[in-house]
Amino acid sequence: MTRTAEQVKGRAGRLARLMPSGPSTAARTPFVLLVVLLLTGGLISLLLLNSALNEGSFRLSKLKRETTELTDEQQALQRDVDGYSEPDALERRARELGMVPGGSPAFLGPDGKVRGVPERADAEPLPTAPEPETAAPEQASPSAAPPPAAPVPPAASSATPSTNPTTPLPTSSGR
């Protein structure tokens, strides 16, 4: 006795009726291709996104390293500037150039009169701190000798000094 799907009773018969009677791969092929293409496209886009993120990460670490190096260089340069700006260093370099401390200054008042008694700067530099023991006295440069002091201009020396030469008048209007 042969049994067909219509003759089968119960659950198996109902399942047999739901299944197509012949092979129909033609309807499944576009769907399978669509799913494969979507998965492949998703994987490729994830790979490209990951590569772009890695490239950005490498660039970021390189820029951070360069920033650190430049910050260190800036701090070293700032220390050099601070060292050259110290009063002792400025005085030492001025003496090396042959400069000497100035004398008493004179001031011009708003009316054109000279206030104070101008004096010449001393041609001999003030004694400096002792040199380190590593420097020999024979190595002193001849350019360290100060040049002769410039004469006081005749207009300033012929002016009459005021009665209070030690107190200078303010030079700005105070506004």
Total DSSP E strands: 2
Helix content: 40-55%
Order of helices and strands: HHHEEH
Please mark out the parts with pLDDT under 50 across 5 or more consecutive residues, or reply none: 135-165
Please give the radius of gyration in angstroms: 48 Å
Distance between the termini: 125 Å
Task: Note the total helix count.
Answer: 4
**Which secondary-structure class do the elements indicate?**
mainly alpha
Strand content: under 5%
Description of the molecule:
The structure is a single chain. This protein is mostly helical. The model is unreliable at 135-165 (pLDDT under 50). Strand 1 (107-108) and strand 2 form a beta hairpin. It has four helices and two strands, in the order H-H-H-E-E-H.
Topology (SSEs and partners):
Blueprint: H1 11-18, H2 29-85, H3 87-96, E1 107-108, E2 114-115, H4 154-158
Antiparallel strand pairs: 1-2
Summarize the structure.
The protein has 175 residues and is mainly alpha-helical. It has helices spanning 11-18, 29-85, 87-96, 154-158; strands at residues 107-108, 114-115. Residues 135-165 have low confidence and may be disordered.
